[in-house]
Write a structure and sequence with these properties.
Layout: H1 2-18, E1 36-42, E2 47-54, H2 67-72, E3 78-83, E4 86-96, E5 103-111, E6 120-125, E7 131-136, E8 144-151, E9 158-165, E10 173-180, E11 189-194, E12 201-204, E13 215-223, H3 225-241, E14 262-267, E15 269-276
Parallel strand pairs: 1-14
Antiparallel strand pairs: 1-2, 2-5, 3-4, 3-6, 4-5, 6-7, 8-9, 9-12, 10-11, 10-13, 13-15
């Protein structure tokens, strides 16, 4: 009986291999309508900056010239941010931050005040009169307790451990990033997390990747739930993008108004420690 089963499986395999299972099909995709995408991060002591752009079709080829920026950047908007009765207007101007490599198209020389008590209110009026609004608040940053460098036994490679204390009585959200030598490099780690498993103590590690004289930059952002959900859905969307069986993930947004925009308006409170591997 076992031999007959093997023969049957072999015959099925031969029949399937003889079939032509490839067939080209044409799918008519609907015309794509771009959506406005806004990012504004309030960092105390730093100028007000905002990026307002328009999304592009998924299957559109990536352009090789600078005209691409002209096509996706949304100009001509009236942008203001209010805090404690004071209004800050952002000019329509293309700015590149040389330290982080971030690009913005709305900018103000006025700096974000270190105000943890009042709401920041965003008000954007587009050229067609439609509005984008949002509200956020700065959070007090949680600081690192200590940074430790540990070398592997009988080796010249080291890892870095970062320790921080979390308040177990409140619901907190964080973003941890780890760079080497400069902030404009690709981070080794960059992810959001909540404090459900912290039990009051957070320990962030690394691989044994560092050598003598490396400058390891640990950053711990204290973020709100909106920014946490925004980062999570961005990661889910990236994962689904590379998986043909993955379910599409919509991007979470805290923006309101009749402009049908997505994105995030949030504060960036953080503690950053640069450690030289000795």
């Amino acid at each position: 009986m076992k031999h007959l089963t093997y023969i049957f499986i072999g015959m099925i395999t031969l029949l399937v291999s003889a079939c032509n299972l490839e067939k080209e099909i044409d799918i008519d995709l609907p015309d794509y309508e771009g959506r406005l995408f806004l990012e504004c991060y309030l960092e105390p002591g730093q100028p007000f900056t905002l990026l307002l752009s328009r999304t592009s079709p998924y299957f559109e080829s990536f352009p090789s010239d600078t005209a691409f920026l002209t096509n996706i950047l949304e100009d001509g908007a009236d942008v203001s941010i209010r805090i404690n009765g004071e209004e800050h207007h952002l000019q329509d101007e293309l700015i590149l931050n040389p330290f982080t490599g971030k690009l913005f198209n709305y900018y103000s020389l006025e700096v974000v005040p270190e105000n943890y008590e009042d709401d920041f209110e965003l008000d954007v009026t587009l050229k067609d009169g439609k509005k984008i609004t949002a509200t956020t608040r700065l959070l007090h940053p949680v600081k690192f307790d200590s940074i430790q460098v540990e070398f592997a036994k009988n080796d010249t490679l080291a890892r870095v451990l970062a320790f921080a204390t979390d308040d177990p009585n409140t619901e907190n959200y964080y973003r941890r990033s780890l760079h080497v030598n400069s902030l404009d490099s690709i981070p080794i780690f960059d992810f959001p997390l909540d404090d459900r498993a912290s039990e009051g103590v957070m320990v962030f590690g690394s691989f044994y990747d560092f050598v003598k004289d490396d400058k390891v930059i640990n950053t711990l952002y204290t973020i709100d739930k909106d920014y946490f959900k925004f980062l999570q859905t961005i990661q889910f969307a990236i994962s689904a993008n590379g998986n043909p069986f993955g379910q599409p993930s919509p991007i979470y947004t805290n923006l309101k108004g009749d402009a049908n925009a997505i994105g995030i308006f949030t504060g960036l409170s953080y503690d950053r420690v640069v450690t030289k591997v000795e």
